[in-house]
Amino acid sequence: MKEITKETYINWYKDMLFWRKFEDKLAAVYIQQKVRGFLHLYNGQEAVLAGALHAMDLTKDKMITAYRNHVQPIGMGVDPRRVMAELYGKETGTSHGMGGSMHIFSKEHRFYGGHGIVGGQIPLGAGIAFGDKYKGNDAVTLTCFGDGAARQGSLHETFNMAMLWKLPVVFVVENNGYAMGTSVKRTANHEDIWKLGLGYDMPSKPVDGMNPVKVAEAMYEAIEHARKDGPYFLEVKTYRYRGHSMSDAQHYRTKDEVAEYKKIDPITQVLDVIKKEKYATDDEIKAWDKAVKDKVAECEKFAEESPYPDKQALYDMVYEQEDYPFVKHKL
Ligand SMILES: Cc1ncc(C[n+]2csc(CCOP(=O)(O)OP(=O)(O)O)c2C)c(N)n1
Ligand SMILES: [Mg+2]
């Protein structure tokens, strides 16, 4: 794996802080009804992405995830202004404003969405990996999903096929403790989701998902295994600070529980190392914080000032086939 250096810590700090503040801004503009529909935020889970990106080969590896998907494409290289514009429903967005929050996508940056059907991306991720194996590409697909999605039957079908065909895929369950308001405890007789891989002889293990170093190390081992020998399953134990979506009253957990996780916040953990190792002065850190704030403001300005798509585009996006064999309805 690439060495974890002073620069890695500094980049992790800047990136994770930007992702956090980018989403804080989304929450604010959502309340102003500038962003509509659903909005699921990633606050608290940033170390999973930071560690994964460090371990991936960003010239070829791919990623697919669920609807909590705003910051992953940014990490993969998509212009954050275009991600914010997509949430605003603007023409300059990643899908010309037609996808919205749950459907960020960039083939160019090998980010395959953005999926609203819980667990729907699990077979799709294996399908992408199948395509790469078939074509002889050297790429690995990170297929990320939640603890709730891990309970879908499609996980088992996919694990079986992926192992049978030794597909270059890493399955990553981001166990943030809850599927909407349902805790992991209430969904199965044991809480070790990683053990689901063992029935398929898939190398599987749990990882501390609040620490990007731990994530990067585990991801690297998993990705390089997948590249040569086939699937790997990681259960990354993480936590989301905000509600499931913006309309969640969070009656299923206590404020104390959230506060406990904030004590091991990934951004704070990284900042503590930067300070302890004297990687930067207080003034330098202040300058980074200001740069992050400015970058978020730039994204907001870009989204605000971008035009909505032309009304005609509504019809351009609809599937049409003139000779479709409609069956006449008989009364
Ligand atoms: C097939 C399907 N069933 C139910 C839903 C409603 N739903 C949306 S998110 C969600 C919870 C998923 O939780 P988890 O997989 O843990 O992901 P997290 O939101 O925690 O990231 C549910 C049940 C859905 N979108 N799709
Ligand atoms: Mg969850």
Automatic annotation (TrEMBL):
<keyword id="KW-0786">Thiamine pyrophosphate</keyword>
<comment type="function">
    <text>The pyruvate dehydrogenase complex catalyzes the overall conversion of pyruvate to acetyl-CoA and CO(2).</text>
</comment>
<dbReference type="InterPro" id="IPR001017">
    <property type="entry name" value="DH_E1"/>
</dbReference>
<protein>
    <recommendedName>
        <fullName>Pyruvate dehydrogenase E1 component subunit alpha</fullName>
        <ecNumber>1.2.4.1</ecNumber>
    </recommendedName>
</protein>
<comment type="subunit">
    <text>Heterodimer of an alpha and a beta chain.</text>
</comment>
<dbReference type="GO" id="GO:0006086">
    <property type="term" value="P:pyruvate decarboxylation to acetyl-CoA"/>
</dbReference>
<dbReference type="GO" id="GO:0004739">
    <property type="term" value="F:pyruvate dehydrogenase (acetyl-transferring) activity"/>
</dbReference>
<dbReference type="InterPro" id="IPR029061">
    <property type="entry name" value="THDP-binding"/>
</dbReference>
<dbReference type="InterPro" id="IPR017597">
    <property type="entry name" value="Pyrv_DH_E1_asu_subgrp-y"/>
</dbReference>
<keyword id="KW-0670">Pyruvate</keyword>
<dbReference type="Pfam" id="PF00676">
    <property type="entry name" value="E1_dh"/>
</dbReference>
<feature type="domain" description="Dehydrogenase E1 component">
    <location>
        <begin position="15"/>
        <end position="310"/>
    </location>
</feature>
<dbReference type="InterPro" id="IPR050642">
    <property type="entry name" value="PDH_E1_Alpha_Subunit"/>
</dbReference>
<keyword id="KW-0560">Oxidoreductase</keyword>
